[in-house]
TrEMBL record:
Keyword annotations from UniProtKB, A to Z: DNA-binding, Transcription, Transcription regulation
Domain HTH tetR-type stretches: 18-65
Protein name: TetR/AcrR family transcriptional regulator
Alphabetized InterPro entries for the sequence: Homeodomain-like_sf (IPR009057), HTH_TetR (IPR001647), Tet_transcr_reg_TetR-rel_C_sf (IPR036271), TetR_C (IPR011075)
Domain (Tetracyclin repressor-like C-terminal): residue spans on this chain: 104-191
Pfam families per UniProt: TetR_C_13, TetR_N
Keyword set includes Protease: no
């Protein structure tokens, strides 16, 4: 069980540095391919330091990585993600998504999606943590579709929850194909296709 601890500002900064470095390692190698010794070496921390910040070991660290990556993914889409109320805003959001994954070396895919494919089936705690971030992401997209309907830019046939699911599926599926293709073109096509479908409900 993860224990709640009070940390000094310096301690919190050290813990955050460990999590961010470990998150990058896990994205590149996977949870199974990243050991605590790997994290210690990359962060130049001792075993006692690592267990000071993560007394429950690797599982607690991976939960922190899930939180870190979830926030990274959502923050990369802001501010457009929080203000999807026009076609220009949707275009800006699309460009932020593509730009974020363009900056990820080697087209490694979505950090949340990669973690989900590795641990969701075997760890219910991590599955719930990951599901919470997908749910938040979906709710933000659905809210954007809802705002477009309220402004009279989309007809009533545009279901917010359905389009949020379609857009997320386009991103995750597009990234999976991009991993094997070595280019983000599949992501671009999948996301543009989902947005083109949304435009079929535009009120002229």
């Amino acid at each position: 069980m993860e224990r709640t601890r009070r940390l000094t500002a310096k301690g919190a900064a050290t813990r955050a540095r460990i999590v961010e470095t470990a998150a990058d390692q896990v994205l590149a190698r996977g949870v199974g391919g990243t050991s605590l010794d790997d994290v210690r070496a990359a962060t130049r921390t001792s075993k006692s330091q690592l267990f000071h910040y993560f007394p429950d070991g690797k599982h607690e660290l991976v939960r922190a990585i899930v939180a870190c990556q979830g926030e990274r993914v959502l923050d990369a889409q802001r501010p457009a993600l929080d203000a999807l109320d026009s076609w220009a805003a949707w275009a800006a959001w699309r460009d932020l998504v593509i730009a974020h994954y363009t900056r990820v070396d080697g087209v490694l895919g979505c950090p949340i999606g990669s973690l989900s494919s590795e641990v969701a089936a075997v760890d219910p705690v991590l599955r719930d943590d990951l599901a919470a971030y997908f749910r938040t992401w979906s709710e933000l997209l659905a809210a954007g579709v809802g705002r477009m309907r309220e402004r009279g830019l989309l007809d009533d046939g545009a279901d917010p929850e359905a389009f949020a699911t379609e857009l997320l599926a386009a991103i995750q599926g597009g990234l999976l194909l991009s991993q094997t293709a070595g280019t983000l073109r599949p992501l671009e096509l999948a996301l543009d296709g989902a947005l083109a479908h949304l435009r079929t409900h535009a009120v002229m």
